[in-house]
Design brief:
The chain is an all-alpha fold and 111 residues long. It contains five helices and no strands. Helix 2 (14-35) packs across helix 4, helix 2 packs parallel to helix 5 and helix 3 (43-55) packs antiparallel against helix 4. The chain starts with a helix and ends with a helix.
Length: 111
C-alpha cells in the first residue's frame, strides 16, 4: 500500500494518497497487534490498544500513536468530506512519518 500511496501522490491524487498511507500504517499496526495476541474491532479500538499496549508501556514512542490518529482524521476527511480538498502539503508532511511508523512496527515485530 505504501507504493500505491506514493504513486497516488506523484499523480496528484492526494485524497487517494492519504487513504493508502493511512491504510499502510493501519494494517502494519494491526499486524503488530496480531503478532502479540491482541486484536481490535474498530479503527478507534486499534488506536486504543496500540496506545495502551505499546505506547503507555514504553515499547514505542507516543509520536507514532499521535501520527496514526492524525492520519485517521485526515483519511476520514479525504474519504468522506466532499467539501474538504486534500492538498499536496496535507500529504507531503505525512510521507516520512508513515515510513518511520512502518519501520518501527517492523522493529517491534522483529521482522
Amino acid at each position: 500500500m505504501l507504493i500505491q500511496a506514493e504513486e497516488m501522490y506523484s499523480l496528484s491524487h492526494y485524497d487517494m494518497a492519504v487513504n493508502r498511507y493511512y491504510y499502510a500504517c493501519f494494517h502494519a499496526v494491526h499486524a503488530l497487534l496480531v503478532a502479540n495476541g491482541l486484536s481490535a474491532k474498530t479503527h478507534e479500538g486499534l488506536l486504543a490498544v496500540f496506545g495502551k499496549e505499546f505506547v503507555l508501556t514504553g515499547k514505542t514512542d507516543r509520536k507514532y500513536s499521535s501520527f496514526l490518529a492524525r492520519m485517521e482524521q485526515l483519511r476520514k476527511k479525504a474519504d468522506y468530506n466532499c467539501v474538504y480538498d486534500v492538498s499536496a502539503s496535507d500529504v507531503s508532511d505525512k510521507q516520512i512519518p508513515a515510513h518511520e511508523l512502518l519501520n518501527e512496527i517492523k522493529r517491534l515485530i522483529n521482522i
